[in-house]
Amino acid sequence: MNIAVLSRGENLYSTQSLLKAGLARNHEMEVLDPSHCTLGVEEGKAVLYYYNEIVDDLHAVIPRVGASNTFYGASLVRHFQSMGVFCVVGAEPILQSRNKWTCFQILAKAGIPIPKTILGNAPDAQAALAHFKKTPIIIKLLQGTHGQGVILAETHASALSTIETLKAAKVRFIIQEFIAESNGSDLRAIVVDGKVVAAMKRQSREGEFRSNLHRGGSAEALQLSHAQENIALRAAKALKMGVCGVDILESEHGPLVLEVNSTPGLEGIETTTGIDIATKIINYIERNKRT
After folding, report:
1. Contacts of 108 (CB under 8 A, 6+ apart)
2. Residues 91-106: what's their mean pLDDT?
3. Domain boundary among 178, 208, 224
4. For residue 56, is it within any domain?
5. Which secondary structure element, helix H or strand E, spans residue 21, and what is its range?
6. Is 156 within the bounds of a domain?
7. Can you list the alpha helix ranges (DSSP code H) found in 55-201?
8. Phi then psi for 21, rounded to 5 degrees?
9. What is the CATH number of the domain that holds 146?
């Protein structure tokens, strides 16, 4: 098969891991930089040019769409779908997962437990905060990755000040309960084709409440419990994602889904678990590509 990785970083670990996995399975692999793609409709059909050369021989694409390029990246994926090319993650799931509030609404519809969350753009900030009796309180921008745009408000006063500032700047955000019992840790599960193929526990460094490895957190391989695995699979199914990363918090009430990532990084979890996730993604394409 001819398989393309949509990525602006050809030398990034995840991109290289996918390329190597595809080549090892005797597929023709290439990297398409979205910034050099031109989308069009000609004679009633979706067409795509890479630089000035038409692209019409792909069987599948693996989107690695960055948060800063969500709108155009999703449009590009939708274009490939219109051309009949198999995409491991569709355009709508990418858009829905990148907007944290939309993601939570979809998860709530499926009955999947999440931390208590309020849309922060209500007219009365005091009324919104009244839903949270305990502090600290988490405030998150609707779009952000690697822990960016996540604020820990230690008191209601600081939360109110932050909310008023964000509202004045017309920034969209959510307010969320702080799960103290997680002790600065979360679980990352990678789901491929309806199965959890790898999982790890991430622990924040001292003095930091975010567990992202990009922020100095540590990680260890983990075997999920039945409840944790079940919630990860249900989240992936609710968002209709063939490949995703599901972040889970352990609370006193059981596991809660914190986030669903349509483009999970592979370096941290492959290095931590020793599991070749890239090959599992290639295997998924082999089982499911359109003929």
Report:
1. 114
2. 95
3. 178
4. yes
5. helix 13-24
6. yes
7. 70-82, 91-98, 100-109, 125-129, 156-168
8. -65, -40
9. 3.30.1490.20
How confident is the model over 199-206, as a mean pLDDT?
84
Q: What is the reported pLDDT for 126?
A: 83
Does one domain contain both 272 and 185?
yes
Read off the pTM: 0.90
What radius of gyration, in Å, describes the C-alpha atoms of the chain? 20
Domain CATH number, residue 201: 3.30.470.20
Q: Shortest CA distance to 172 belongs to which of 136, 122, 207, 215? A: 122
Using CA atoms in the order 66, 264, 61, 37, what is the torsion angle rounded to 10 degrees?
10
Residue whose token pair is 């000609």: 42
Distance CA 279, CA 18 (A): 7
Question: What mean pLDDT value characterizes the chain?
Answer: 90
CB 245 within 8 A of CB 88: no
Secondary structure E strands in the chain: 2-6, 28-32, 37-42, 45-50, 53-54, 60-63, 86-87, 117-119, 137-141, 150-153, 173-177, 185-192, 195-203, 218-221, 243-251, 254-261
Between CA 277 and CA 279 the distance in angstroms is 5
Domain that holds residue 254: 181-285
Give, for 15, the enclosing helix (H) or strand (E): helix 13-24
Domain for residue 220, yes or no? yes
Contact 32, 50 (CB under 8 A): yes
- pLDDT tops 80 at residue 212: no
What angle (nearest 5°) sits at the alpha carbon of residue 46, between those of residues 43 and 47?
90
Statement to judge: residues 78 and 57 lie in one domain: yes
**21 and 82 assigned to the same domain:** yes
Task: Tell me if 105 is assigned to some domain.
Answer: no
pLDDT of the residue at 9 = 87
What's residue 216's pLDDT? Answer: 58
**pLDDT recorded at residue 275:** 97
Does 193 lie in the same domain as 157? no
The answer, yes or no, to whether residue 258 has pLDDT greater than 60, is yes
